[in-house]
Q: What sequence folds into this?
């Protein structure tokens, strides 16, 4: 089937989805597990040809796709890389994903690509730059994107805008949606002594098109304060699942990705994580359809 | 401090472990915390070292995890990825390995790394149907010498003074297999269909293969092998074509 003939999922289903990993391609295609959608890192599919494209074509014929960029550097002071935008456009045209998302972070500087999602201060100046970059991205891709809240380990003295207000204003001005990473909320809240539930309560959930869940690592900083690390190498922690449940109660069922990028487990164990999220989604769907007590 | 300036300071501090924390970086306590900033420093280097370990697993196995990590970290200190396409990172890592003094005792190491580098290139290269042997029959005899073969987009050649191909193949899985004999090997890496294949070429075909893949005409490539005692033009040509090393024929002028 050519990409142009493929039925396009208009949006991701309110189900649990999984990050697509090379080591799971064969098992997924031979067992057809009941997964709501798959998500890939766009940059892994920017080669000219080869097995990655062949597998992704086959996966796309059977599952909705979420395309998640990790290299656009939207939060950089420097201009966006036009060559990278063109590569993204080609991928979007070829695979017609139900969603495209990127991060409120930067990763490219004079020295090259730093392969990490780095934080930025929240000021009127950085806000203007991010709005401009999101706008350029949406223009280049010909579609609306989702912008993801970051996990951060430091704060900036110069920040004058609250993170939620920053994201909400970008979404308002650039016309993008938001991707709410609930694990990032927990990581940042603990790291900056905030209440993660209060963060969710203030978050503009009506703008959220997708949720991310992942496992964090834990250490302490130089003063002995708890320091959570966004590690993507373990099951979703219990406190993050509780925060996720709270998010759904407030915002309703939403497409939910399990991110597990390091020390990737076998598919059965990854699939079990999807079941955990699907169970919470099912409870919320049932709760909302249940007749209310008078 | 403007956005550009502060981001530049952040990046500079990130990449220089000996530097002080960038101005304005703080914590909820209202004080800068070196361990918090260190998470970013660590993330950058750990992720780059991990990317190299994924691309060069046999190289890592040959020297051990700890040695590899040190070597990769030294490489990454001066060389950041040119783009967010991480599968391209480390293209010149084999050259670095060749000039890395602590690895001098393993003269074959850089060539094994070269095989692994071209393996990834082949994996992501453009797809193309390989030239079939029967297509060779379409070349009129008087145009044979001037004709060139267009390399398959995935084809890469590693010429080693050591049995690099056998060492690579013998260290991919358990149990480890030492090379049967310590001879120079020329290795063709190619992906005619979906699988990347790694072939140690017959020694007599090495110079011929290198010349053809570098764009020489069949006549020139044959000439490059004139002093190779057991070189057989027909066998070498059919052998390379059968492996899928080429995509097309660029017909030469009649002679």
A:
């Amino acid at each position: 089937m050519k990409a142009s003939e493929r039925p396009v999922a208009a949006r991701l289903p309110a189900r649990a989805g999984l990050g697509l990993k090379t080591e799971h391609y064969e098992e997924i295609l031979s067992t057809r597990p009941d997964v709501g959608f798959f998500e890939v890192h766009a940059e892994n599919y920017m080669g000219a040809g080869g097995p990655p494209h062949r597998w992704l074509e086959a996966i796309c014929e059977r599952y909705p796709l979420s395309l998640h960029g990790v290299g656009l550097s939207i939060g950089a002071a420097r201009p966006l890389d036009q060559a990278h935008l063109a590569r993204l456009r080609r991928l979007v045209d070829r695979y017609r994903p139900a969603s495209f998302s990127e991060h409120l972070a930067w990763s490219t500087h004079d020295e090259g690509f730093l392969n990490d999602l780095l934080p930025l201060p929240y000021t009127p100046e950085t806000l203007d730059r991010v709005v401009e970059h999101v706008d350029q991205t949406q223009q280049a891709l010909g579609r609306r994107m989702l912008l993801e809240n970051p996990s951060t380990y430091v704060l900036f003295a110069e920040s004058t805008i609250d993170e939620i207000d920053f994201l909400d204003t970008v979404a308002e001005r650039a016309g993008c949606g938001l991707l709410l990473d609930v694990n990032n909320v927990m990581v940042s809240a603990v790291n900056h002594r905030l209440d993660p539930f209060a963060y969710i309560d203030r978050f503009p959930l009506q703008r959220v098109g997708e949720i991310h869940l992942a496992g964090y690592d834990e250490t302490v900083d130089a003063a002995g304060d708890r320091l959570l690390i966004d590690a993507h190498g373990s099951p979703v922690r219990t406190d993050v699942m509780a925060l996720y449940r709270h998010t759904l109660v407030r915002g309703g069922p939403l497409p939910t990705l399990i991110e597990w990028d390091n020390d990737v487990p076998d598919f059965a164990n990854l699939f079990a994580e999807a079941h955990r999220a699907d169970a919470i989604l099912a409870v919320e769907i049932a709760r909302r359809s249940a007749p209310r007590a008078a | 401090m403007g956005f550009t300036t502060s981001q530049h300071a952040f990046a500079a501090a990130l990449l220089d472990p000996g530097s002080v924390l960038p101005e304005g970086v703080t914590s909820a306590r209202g004080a800068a915390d070196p361990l918090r900033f260190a998470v970013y420093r660590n993330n950058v280097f750990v992720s780059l070292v991990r990317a190299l370990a994924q691309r060069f697993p046999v190289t890592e196995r040959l020297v051990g995890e700890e040695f590899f990590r040190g070597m990769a970290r030294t490489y990454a200190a001066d060389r950041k990825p040119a783009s967010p396409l991480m599968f391209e990172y480390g293209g010149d890592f084999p050259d670095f390995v060749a000039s890395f003094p602590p690895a001098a005792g393993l003269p074959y190491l850089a060539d094994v790394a070269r095989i692994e580098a071209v393996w990834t290139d082949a994996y992501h290269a453009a797809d193309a149907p390989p030239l079939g042997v029967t297509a060779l029959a379409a070349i009129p005899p008087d145009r044979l010498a001037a004709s060139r073969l267009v390399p398959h987009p995935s084809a890469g050649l590693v010429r080693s003074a050591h049995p690099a191909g056998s060492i690579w193949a013998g260290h991919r899985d358990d149990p480890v297999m030492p090379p049967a004999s310590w001879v120079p090997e020329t290795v063709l890496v190619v992906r005619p269909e979906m699988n990347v294949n790694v072939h140690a070429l017959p020694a007599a075909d090495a110079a011929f293969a290198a010349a053809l893949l570098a764009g020489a005409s069949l006549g020139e490539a044959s000439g490059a092998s004139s002093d190779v005692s057991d070189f057989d033009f027909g066998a070498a040509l059919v052998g390379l074509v059968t492996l899928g090393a080429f995509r097309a024929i660029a017909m030469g002028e009649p002679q």
In short: Chain B touches chain A through 52 residues (CB under 8 Å). Chain B has ten helices and six strands. Chain B has two domains: 1-106, 126-255.
